[in-house]
Amino acid sequence: MENLLEVRHLSTQFATGAGTVRAVDDVSWDVKPGETVALVGESGCGKSVSALSIMRLVAAPAGRITGGQILFKGRDLLTLPDHEMRDIRGKDIAMVFQEPMTSLNPVLTVGRQLTEPCEIHLGMTPDQSRTRAIEILGLVGISDAERRLRQYPHQFSGGMRQRLMIAMSLSCNPALVLADEPTTALDVTIQAQILELMKGLSQRLGAAMLIITHNLGVVARYADRVNVMYAGKIVEQGTAREIYADPRHPYTLGLLRSVPRLDEPKRAKLAPIQGQPPDLTRLPRGCAFEPRCAYSVARCTAEIPPLEAVNGTHRSACWVARELRERAAADAKAAA
Amino acid sequence: MSTVATHSRTDTVPDQAGEVILEVRNLVKYFEVGGGFLGGHSAVVKALDGVSFSIRRGETLGLVGESGCGKTTTGRCILMLERPTSGQVIFEGRDLTTLAPAELRAMRRKIQVIFQDPYSSLNPRMTVGQMIAEPIAVHGIVRERKARNERVQELLSVSGLLPSMADRYPHELSGGQRQRVGIARALAMEPSLIVCDEPVSALDVSIQAQIITLLERLQDRYNLTYLFVAHDLSVVRHVSDRVAVMYLGKMAEITDRASLYAEPLHPYTKALLSAVPIPDPVVEAARERTVLIGEVPSPLNPPSGCVFHPRCPIAIDECKRVIPGLKEVRPDHYAACIRL
User: Fold this and answer.
1) Lowest CB count within 10 Å: A177, B179, B194, B245, which one?
2) Are A220 and B257 within 8 A, CB to CB?
3) By the CB < 8 Å criterion, does B8 face chain A?
C-alpha cells in the first residue's frame, strides 16, 4: 500500500545554553492509510518533537528542523509555504495533545472551538458547523450535546476534555491523527474508554493514527507497527508482534523486562535497565545506549550502529542485534 | 549477584508473619469546600467515608484506585498531615488521633513518607546532604556532626547514590536520583512504616523498575512495612503482599495479592484489571475487555446506595438504595458488593 506519511531523515535541533540538542536525529518512518503506528520511548527521546516537526510547530528560534523530508500524500510539508501548511494543519493532519486543559482555549465556548475549524477548513456556514459539532460530540460519547456546546472547558472533567480534544481533531475528517500521550493524564478506566474510542473512530472514519506513548501496554493493545526511540534516534522498528515477541535491541528488551505484567506469574525480581537516560548535549561517540547496555561489545563505543533489517520489515540499530536473542537467553539461564 | 536473593517472593505464600503494626478503623475525612468570606454555598467532600484496614509488620499493603478515590488522603491521615474527621489510626498500639502534639512528633519519626513528585518534595535551596542531615539533627538521632555526615554518606549509598552527591542541589539530579534522595531522607528516621505515595508514577519506565527494586531491597534489609499507594495495578501487584481497592472514599475490596489478581470479586476491581493493557500484542488481541461506562462521580455529590452503581455492569435496583458493607466473601477476602 502507498504510504500516507513518509518521514525521511528528519533532524530537529534545539539550541540550548548547554549546547545543541539533537532532539530528533536522522529519523525515518512511515504511516500507511488507516493504520495505527506507535512512537515509543521515554521522556526526552524525541517522540513529541517528531510529531511537532510534522505539524511544523517546533518552537523557533531555539528549535528548528535542520534536515530531511516529511512527505504527506507525496508532498513535502517542509517546503510548503506557511498558508498551505495552515490548510493542512487541523484539516488533513490533526493533533491530540496530552494535557487537554492546557490545549483548549479557556475563554471560548466548547461550541466555538468545535465549529471554528469546520468553518475555516471546510467552508461551512455557522448552521452547518453547529450540526457537525453536535454530530461529532455524539460520536465521541458526549451526551446532551446542545447544552454542552454552550459550556466552557473548565466545566468538563478530564476524560470529557480529552473526548472534546478528540472531537476537535476529527471534526474535519483528517487522514492522519497525531496523538501525543493522549491518555497519560487520565485514570485507568477512563484511559481504556478513550483508547477504545480512538481506535473505533479511526477504523470507522478511516483515519490513520500515530500514537506517541511511553506505555508499552497501550502500544501492544492498539498499534499495528512500532518505532522505539532512544536519544533522538529510532533504535528498533517493526510490527508490534515482531517487537514484542522478538525484541532485537537491548533497550527494547530491557524495557519489556523491567515492567511487571498482569498476565504472568509474579516475577521474584524485576530486571531494571541500569543507569540514567543520556544527556542529549553530551552523547557518547558510539551508540547512545551503550553506557546502559548489558550486551555491548567494543565496536559499540566507537561507531553508531545504523538501523538495519534483521528480518524483513523488522529493523534494529544495534551491532549485536543478530545474537541478541541467544545472548539474552543465555543470560536468563545464568541468572536462574 | 545480589546478596539479598535469598528472600524470594512468590504468589503462593502470602507473608502472614508479624504483628499488626498499623490498624485503621472506620477512618472518615470530610473536607469543607466553597463558602468563603463572601458567603455562598459550602459543601462537603467526603474524601474518606469509613475506611478500615490493617497492615502487619514487614508486609506491603498496596492501595489502589483512581484519582479522587481517597488513597492519598488515607496516607495523609495516617501521617497525621490531615486530622481525620473521625476514626482511629492505631500505630504500634497507640491511637495517633488522640496523641498530644509532642507525643505525636515522637511517633511520627516511625512513620515516613515518600512522595510522588521528587521535583516538588525536595527543597531547591538545600544540598542533598543538608536535606538528609537536618531531620537527623532535629530528632537528635545522631548528635555529633562528623558522625552525622558519616550517616548521611551511608544513607546515600544504601539508596544507590554516590557519597559525592551530598553536595549537589536537587536541580542537578535526574528524576530517579531525586526519588532516591527522598528515600534516603525517609530512611534517616529509621522508620518502621513508610507511606509510599505513587513513588514511581512520575518516573520514566526504565527508572521505575530501579526504584521498585531499591524499595524491595530496603524492605528486606530493614524489615520495613510499606503502605504502597498507586494507580498502576501491575506495579502494585509486583510489590504488594495484600491489596486494597478504593472507590470514591470507600473500600471496595481487600485481600492478599494472589486472590485479588486471580479471582477479583468486586465488579470495580474486575473492570480496573481489564482496563490495564498488557505489553504483549498476542495476549491483547485475545483478551476480553470490560470497558466501564461513565466517569468517577464527584465526591461532592456521591451516588446513593453503592457509590459504584451508576457504572456497575451488574447493578440492580437495590444497589441504588443499599450501602454495601465490606464482608468476608471468601476466607480473608473482603468485598463491598451486595451482589456477591
Assistant:
1) A177
2) no
3) yes
In chain A, what residues touch B209 (CB-CB under 8 Å)?
258-259, 270-273
Closest chain A residue by Cα to residue B201: A184
Looking at beta carbons, which residues of chain B come within 8 Å of A220?
277-281, 283-284
Q: How far apart are CA A142 and CA A114, in angstroms?
A: 13
Domain count, chain A: 1
- Full-model pTM: 0.87
For residues B117-143, average pLDDT:
91
Q: Does B198 touch chain A (CB under 8 A)?
A: no
Backbone angles phi, psi at B318, to 5 degrees: -60, -30
| A134 found inside a domain | no
Q: What is the pLDDT of residues B326-340, one digit of tens each?
A: 999 999 999 999 998
Q: Which residues have a Cβ under 8 Å from the Cβ of A63 and sit 6 or more positions away?
A: A12, A13, A14, A15, A23, A49
Min mean pLDDT across A97-101, A297-301, B282-286 is at A97-101
Nearest-neighbour CA in chain B from A267: distance (Å): 7
Tell me the H-state helices in B223-337.
Answer: 233-239, 257-262, 267-275, 281-286
Is A304 part of a structural domain of the chain?
yes
By CA distance, what is B298's nearest residue in A? A157
Tell me the ipTM for this assembly: 0.82
Provide CB contacts within 8 A for B34, sequence distance 6+: B40, B41, B42, B43
Q: In which domain, by residue range, is A311 found?
A: 250-335
Q: How far apart are CA A16 and CA A61, in angstroms?
A: 11
Please state the rounded mean pLDDT for residues A239-244: 94
Section A278-297 average pLDDT: 92
E-strand ranges in chain B read 20-34, 42-56, 60-64, 86-91, 94-95, 111-114, 193-197, 225-230, 242-247, 250-256, 327-330, 333-335
Q: Tell me the count of A-B CB pairs closer than 8 A.
A: 144
DSSP H helical ranges for chain A: 47-54, 82-88, 100-103, 110-122, 126-139, 145-148, 158-170, 188-205, 216-222, 240-245, 250-258, 298-302, 324-335
Query: Is residue B13 very low, low, confident or very high in pLDDT (cuts 50, 70, 90)?
Result: very low
pLDDT at position B17: 58
Give the model's pLDDT for residue B36.
64
A284 domain residue, yes or no: yes
Residue B241 identity (one-letter amino acid) = D
Domains for chain B: give ranges and CATH numbers. Answer: 20-110+191-265 (3.40.50.300)
| CA-based nearest residue in chain B for residue A185 | B67
